[in-house]
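Limitations

Structures in this collection are predictions, not experimental determinations, and the ligand pose is part of the prediction. Treat each record accordingly. The example that follows, with adenosine-5'-triphosphate as the small molecule, is included so readers can see exactly what is and is not provided: the inputs are given verbatim, and the output is the predicted complex.
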Amino acid sequence: MSILKVDNITMRFGGLVAVSQFDMTLNEGEIVGLIGPNGAGKTTAFNMITGVYKPTEGSVFFQDDKSAVDITKYRPDEITKLGVARTFQNIRLFKELSVLDNVLIANHLRLKSDVFSAMLTLPNYRKEEKAMYEKSIHLLEEVGLQDLMHEKSTSLPYGKQRRLEIARALATNPKVLLLDEPAAGMNPKESLELMDFIADIRDRFKLTIFMIEHHMQVVMGICERIFVLDHGVTIAQGTPSEIQNNEKVIEAYLGVD
Ligand SMILES: Nc1ncnc2c1ncn2[C@@H]1O[C@H](COP(=O)(O)OP(=O)(O)OP(=O)(O)O)[C@@H](O)[C@H]1O
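Predicted complex:
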């Protein structure tokens, strides 16, 4: 069953067409990759799906439990609440906060109590806070960061900061997780560990994953389908082996280096 439908979205910045008629359906449980040279429009596509940019044309639909919801005009926080979470190309952690506090903050998005209950620390709020605290610790256990929960987030090695960023996205209970270059800046060993980690959380959290990645070993090793953008245009889509053997892709991307 499809969970996210991207219907011919286009993004223009003045005269520049950053993404042209990007069309894609994500099926539940898939890991799908988005690749392409620098400036191809990958992050812009993510930004349109997550509400950071409103597409100039086209629509995005999220399949809720009951029906397809048109999220094209939703705000980023509304889209996250519905079940689409993301990470960013440059790690965006709260640098001064501990590992645990970084996850706790993300959890707040899910709190049902309002600001007044929080200020007055009413029983319901306290109950939710406690549940949130326990859930955050559980999440850190799930991603193998429990021993580091009281460390400052930026004191973690790079690979673990990425993991924390993903844990933070998981705290919002997503159904779809968008990862923007999760292997960026990682050494080969960290990249391989990341691949196993992503496949593992997909299974354990029943996620559908859409990821931008330049690291070919990661993309080809983990994605079931891949889309290739070049100058905003989808020049290919298919399985990893189809993409690796596609002449347009080789010319536009894999051949360049
Ligand atoms: N807010 C903006 N205003 C104007 N132009 C933009 C804006 N955001 C992106 N662009 C342009 O749109 C094009 C696509 O950029 P985008 O960041 O989506 O590419 P990308 O494939 O993610 O690149 P990279 O791999 O380098 O991250 C680029 O030419 C970029 O300069």
